[in-house]
Amino acid sequence: MTTWIVLLIVAAVAVVAVVLYNRLVRTRQMAAEGWSGIDVQLKRRADLIPNLVSTVKGYAAHERALFEEVAKLRTAVAAIAEGDVAGRAKAETMLSAA
Length: 98
Known about the structure:
With 98 residues, this protein is mainly α. The protein has helices spanning 2-79, 85-97. α1 runs antiparallel to α2.
């Protein structure tokens, strides 16, 4: 009878040990998978930065020309006399179209 109790206790301890080990392995795998996901996102972000830089360089010349045109038109609007409604309307329309 005592042999069965000892065997039962040993079996219970073995089952608990196996369950704890499996839980530890599962947790370690989940942590590794999480870090892998982070690495993938960081690599994707690092790959996007050169593409973004080349896109910005492509539009920089266009934006510079547009900014210069808008600045010139704003100066022209500010220089129009206060009573010249038609001239101011035309200048504002040109500024809006830019």
